[in-house]
Design brief:
Layout: H1 2-11, H2 17-31, E1 40-44, H3 85-90, E2 93-94, E3 100-101, H4 119-122, H5 149-167, H6 170-177, E4 181-185, H7 188-195, H8 201-206, H9 209-229, E5 234-238, H10 247-253, H11 262-285, E6 290-294, H12 296-310, H13 352-369
Parallel strand pairs: 1-4, 4-5, 5-6
Antiparallel strand pairs: 2-3
């Protein structure tokens, strides 16, 4: 019990359970009645990928069983047993305490860019996210190819050109795009699959943690401004979660008796601070747009608090059998049966349950920018 409480503290600030429950209750009452938007564009890494890596020359793809065991279409390339956080924002979901809610209220999931969506689909939205992708072009490339954020923006430019053609003018296209929600989750792989890799001695000698975070924010700033130039006016940017609490980093780095790799969590903290500052700058530079910060650390806290509230044991080991090389589920293996009590699906990625429980923390921010 003591170690469990320590783990909870590792994810927690001095935020009380009362505040968390109140926030969840508020989002249950109001968070899923947000005004609908006509379209939704998704950028990011494996936390949001819905199949863009399937045909790439990479070991970082998951279009096989047991991935998708709880997803309606089975294995699609999503790095989870079911829906990702980006999916849950889209469609109806059964919420905790039996509450049936609705987020953006789309009928279907947003298609990946790699599936070559048709003209009707692109007006509703496209998912560009790619497993192992980062803000920096080089991040995550040790596993093979990926669609880094620069490429994702180039792919979006192709989509925008098609929308211009479909709607007949750039003005009409940008009026449409200005009503869309844009969500982006980036930065995780710039640390996990770049800066903290044992072989990345050169970049660590060139940049200390504060300098590296500043480098990432500078690149990210240019990329988000490019997104704005392509018509984005409602943008939600996700911070990096406590990656030092992932099963992979706990197993490979070690914790010296602590529940998580504290040094890694401290290492990425400057990025989140910088991202909040960047969002303030973006708001000032673009008063015709709205930008919001998605606090993924708080989103994952709620899983642990609710586990205490509901008196069930949170398991922080992977639900599936994972490869010691990639940290991904071994193909065609049988995963755990009690997936409702696991936070992590594989050595890096959350289960659908964790994504569902985190969504109420994130969605009120999205509401404010719609």
């Amino acid at each position: 019990m003591g170690s469990r409480r320590s783990f909870l503290r590792s994810w927690s600030s001095p935020l009380s359970l009362f505040v968390v429950v109140v926030a969840l209750a508020a989002s249950s009452a109001d968070g899923f009645k947000a005004p609908r938007v006509p379209c939704y564009f998704i950028f990011g890494d494996s936390l949001y990928d819905s199949g863009n890596n399937n045909n790439l020359n990479t070991s970082v793809k998951v279009n096989y069983s047991p991935y998708g065991i709880d997803f309606p279409a089975g294995p699609t390339g999503r790095f989870s047993n079911g829906r990702t956080a980006a999916d849950i924002i889209v469609t109806k979901m059964i919420h905790f305490f039996g509450y049936a809610g609705e987020t953006l209220g789309f009928k279907d999931f947003i298609p990946p860019f790699a599936s070559n969506p048709d003209d009707r689909q692109i007006l509703v939205g496209v998912n560009y996210a790619s497993g192992s992708a980062g803000i920096l072009v080089e991040s995550g490339k040790q596993g093979g190819d990926n669609v880094d954020l620069n490429k994702q923006l180039r792919n979006h430019k192709v989509t925008v050109s098609r929308i211009v053609k479909k709607l007949g003018s750039k003005k009409a296209a940008f009026e449409h795009l200005g009503q869309c929600l844009y969500i982006c989750n980036m930065g995780n792989n710039d640390y996990i699959n770049n800066y903290i890799l044992p072989q990345s001695t050169a970049i660590r000698s060139q940049y200390n943690p504060a300098q590296f975070a500043a480098l990432l924010i500078a690149r990210y700033s240019a990329q988000i401004n490019r997104m704005y130039e392509l018509g984005a006016r409602k943008v939600a940017l996700a911070g990096i979660s406590n990656i030092g609490c992932t099963p992979s980093l706990i197993a490979t780095v070690g914790t010296n008796g602590a529940p998580c790799v504290t040094s890694v969590n401290q290492l990425v903290a400057p990025f989140n601070i910088g991202l909040k500052s960047l969002i303030s700058q973006l708001k000032s530079a673009h008063p015709d747009a709205k930008f919001g910060y998605l606090d993924t650390i708080n989103a994952f806290k709620c899983f642990f608090f609710l586990s205490v509230f509901a008196a069930f044991k949170v398991k922080t080991t992977p639900c599936c059998q994972v490869s010691t090389v990639t940290g991904l589920c071994l193909p065609n293996t049988v995963p755990c049966s009690q997936r409702r009590s696991y936070l992590f699906w594989d050595a890096f990625h959350p289960t659908e349950l964790a994504n569902r429980l985190g969504a109420p923390i994130l969605f009120p921010v999205i509401q404010r920018i719609l």
